[in-house]
Structures are given as structure tokens and as C-alpha cells.
Amino acid sequence: MTSPFIVIVRFQTTPENQETALQQIHAYVESFLRHFKGFQGSTLHCANNGSSIVHYASWQQEADFRAFAAQAAGHPDLAAIRAYQPEADFYSIAQQYPAAGSNP
Fold first, then answer.
1. Is 44 exposed, middle or buried (0-12, 13-18, 19+ CB in 10 A)?
2. What is the pLDDT of residue 104?
3. With helix as H, strand as E and coil as C, how does 6-44 read?
4. 66-90 burial, b if ≥16 CB within 10 A, otherwise e?
5. CA distance 75 to 73
6. Would you state the pLDDT for residue 24?
7. Where along the chain do its domains lie?
8. Is pLDDT of 30 > 80?
């Protein structure tokens, strides 16, 4: 089995706009992104100081993500989300560590 394709996007926020950004990103993921072939799941993380939001998404393979990205380019919510200066990086899982005492 191949390793999933991981996409981590960091959005710049302020304490004043983090909640609004979270709602916008959540709506985009919930109504659009999560319905694409190959999407395995994702998590939104909010910085405790309000300075950013990180979206961690897992895809079955890079081609699935690229197919989504091609269709996402014209999505009407994208302009509002781009206001938070998203920066994406792409990863493969090198190693995972279960909690001590758990079954691998």
C-alpha cells in the first residue's frame, strides 16, 4: 500500500479574524473539498494566539489532489479564503508513532 499524499496549508490570521477565517475554511471543506475522489480526511488547527490556522489533509494519492485542485481554481469561495494568504506544502509520511502501550 502506498503512503497517502499529505497537504498542509497554513493560513495567516489575527486574533480578531481567526473565527471568521475558520468558519469560511470549514464551509469550503465541508461543502466542496471533502466530496472529491481520493480525499481521506482532514483536520483544522487554530493557533492558540490567533495568528494562524493550519489545514492538514490526507489524499489517497497526489493525482487525486491535483484533480481536486484543478476544479477548485474556479470555486466562488476561493477569493475570500485567499485573503488569508494560504501557503501549501506537500508531504509523504516517513514514520508514524503510536502511543506507548497501544497496538501498532
1. middle
2. 61
3. EEEEEEECCCCCHHHHHHHHHHHHHHCHHHCCCEEEEEE
4. eebeeebeeeeeeeebeebeeeeee
5. 6
6. 97
7. 5-92
8. yes
Instruction: Classify 5-92 by CATH class.
Output: alpha beta
Q: What is the pLDDT of residues 31-67, one digit of tens each?
A: 999 999 999 999 999 999 999 999 999 999 999 999 9
Residue 11 near residue 85, CB atoms below 8 Å: yes
Q: How many CA atoms lie within 13 A of 74 on its CB side?
A: 3
* Cα gap 94→92, rounded to integer Å: 6
Cell reading at 21: 477565517
